[in-house]
Design brief:
The complex is a heterodimer. Chain A contains ten helices and ten strands. The chains are: A alpha+beta, B alpha/beta. Chains A and B meet through β6 and α10 of A and β4 of B.
């Protein structure tokens, strides 16, 4: 669960004295959107994103190669130091991916540089790294079937479900618990490694559980306007 | 009226799957009963199974895997790879007979003795991967059939249509890099159904890109939506691919009375679907069409579904 396990270790970085076009080419070549800016000791001093670069590059540069020659000169004088975010938000290798998720959500950013106690860059964790981690958590890389069971919000419900499925010799890819519209209810989503779900569904129904219509499934409720 | 082969062999009933398992021998008895009661037995050419030569299994599956399955049977194992795959000592031989019967049916068709065939086999095949059994499947019957057509009968392009309610992960993976076999599947959306593959953006890889097409369907949908999607996705794909032979992974488990899915198809839809496929076979493949049973677990509905299926093949 530590950031160090999910982060990208081979970070593409840039020097603060590098030009805007060098950054632009690096972003394009590696198909990335974030470039940490480091000093000679690999200490993090800033962060530059594709948006920072694009915002200083005139639109014509993307469109018309002839104009490039003229415009390039003006933009070419700019350095990374002029456009980077100084003292960017960062995270420690010993923070967890939950920390990273919450911080990324709170700061509304796309990636966090990972920095050790000495300020040295150890990696970068992006929204894409987190997506990969949660794809693994969901277990959807392995064959299986997702069920959705409506349960009362009280202790011991999940145990009954897990026991009933385990008794059939079926293993779990994941079990998610989601919020549900009705107060006092929870939606439980077991991802089970089986095709033989009809039998399990009958068993759970006989135990008194309600199986939700798949079209009513909802992992999350969007925040309301007020 | 066409010459239709009907592959059925009582030895297919010998593969037993234990308690609480939907893939039971009674399924094939229900299929046979439906065709018998529909008065179709005198009209079809009965085909009985022979053991497949192992070399054909090896065109698709890893040798170590084949040995592993054989060993599991000989040693009396009851489960193979995953609890879904319940087995008995006859499973290996039954799986060889399933492939053998299908290859025999193809041979009869290529020699002109029959125009098309319905192969009522067990165990099913479309989930079986190169070296892994999955979802009640051991050998990928349809995939082996495609390779047999290419290697033994010099068929260039094989089109596979899979309307089982579950995605045929095995068949897709075996041909996803291959531009000579087009795999089309329509199935319940993988976020709601086994095995969790067959998303709209899975279109093949490398030189096979564009030769795999998937149509996921949301739970609760029925005939109208399925017809619309078949016309939107399958028909243009086959119009441009123009298969030389069509193989069908026939699964009846999207029927409204089948509790293995949340899809609500009627028996009439299955008839309509086969009529479209027969018409495509006439347009592109000189009518050459082999249908192979995959899923379908409603013992009450299988007789009529199988009977109507064969009626379409017979084109009475």
């Amino acid at each position: 669960m530590f950031v160090s396990k999910s982060m990208t270790r081979r970070v593409i970085t840039i020097d603060k004295n590098a030009g805007i076009f060098e950054a632009y080419e690096k972003l394009k070549e590696h198909r990335i959107r974030h470039l940490p800016v480091v000093d000679a000791d690999n200490r993090l001093i800033g962060m530059v994103t594709d948006r920072d670069i694009r915002s200083v590059m005139p639109y014509e540069l993307f469109k018309d190669p002839d104009l490039q020659k003229i415009e390039k000169n003006a933009v070419a004088k700019m350095k990374i130091a002029d456009v980077m975010t100084v003292k960017p938000v960062h995270i420690s290798p010993f923070s967890t991916i939950q920390d990273a998720l919450l911080l990324i959500e709170e700061q509304r950013i796309g990636a966090l540089p990972v920095v050790d106690g000495d300020g040295r860059l150890k990696g970068i964790i992006s929204v894409r790294d987190l997506l990969r981690a949660f794809t693994n958590v969901l277990g959807i890389g392995d064959p299986g079937t997702l069920l959705c069971i409506l349960v009362d919000e009280k202790v011991g419900q999940l145990k009954k479900i897990v026991d009933a499925i385990t008794e059939e010799g079926i293993s779990f890819g994941s079990v998610l618990v989601g919020r549900y519209w009705d107060k006092g209810k929870r939606a439980v989503f077991p991802y089970v490694h089986t095709q033989n779900v009809a039998h399990i569904k009958r068993k759970l129904t006989q135990m008194g559980f309600t199986l939700l219509d798949p079209m009513e499934w909802c992992l999350d409720q969007l925040p309301t306007d007020e | 009226m066409r010459k239709t082969g009907f592959l059925f062999d009582r030895r297919y009933l010998l593969h037993e799957t234990g308690s609480y398992h939907p893939e039971v021998p009674e399924r094939l008895e229900a299929v046979y009963r439906g065709i018998e009661k529909g008065g179709l037995l005198p009209k079809v050419k009965m085909v009985s199974a022979s053991m497949a030569d192992r070399k054909w299994i090896e065109t698709v599956h890893d040798r170590v895997y084949i040995d592993r399955l054989n060993d599991a049977c000989v040693s009396g194992q009851k489960v193979f790879d995953c609890p879904d795959n319940q087995m008995c000592s006859e499973t290996f031989n039954t799986a060889l007979l399933a492939v053998g019967g299908i290859l025999d049916s193809i041979r009869l068709m290529m020699q002109g003795e029959i125009d098309n065939a319905f192969c009522a086999v067990r165990p099913p095949g479309h989930h079986a991967e190169h070296s892994e059994a999955m979802g009640f499947c051991y050998f990928n019957n349809v995939a082996i059939a495609a390779r047999y057509l290419q290697m033994e009968w010099q068929i260039d392009r094989v089109g596979i249509i899979d309307f089982d309610v579950h995605h045929g992960n095995g068949t897709q993976h075996l041909f996803e890099k291959d531009a000579t076999v087009f795999y089309y599947s329509i199935h319940q959306h993988p976020s709601f159904a086994f095995p969790g593959t067959g998303r709209e953006f899975e279109n093949g890889t490398a030189t096979g890109y564009g030769y795999t097409k998937n149509t996921p369907v949301l739970p609760g949908q029925g005939d109208e939506e399925y017809k619309r999607l078949i016309q939107r996705d399958l028909e243009p794909a086959f119009e441009s691919f123009k298969p030389d032979v069509i193989l069908v992974s026939t699964g009846f488990d999207g029927h409204v009375d089948d509790d293995m899915s949340d899809i609500c198809l009627s028996t009439q839809w299955y008839t309509w679907m086969m009529e479209q496929i027969r018409a495509m076979a006439d347009r592109y493949s000189q009518g050459r069409l082999i249908s192979v049973l995959e899923g379908g677990y409603s013992l009450a509905r299988l007789p009529e579904l199988a009977c109507e299926h064969v009626k379409v093949l017979l084109d009475e």
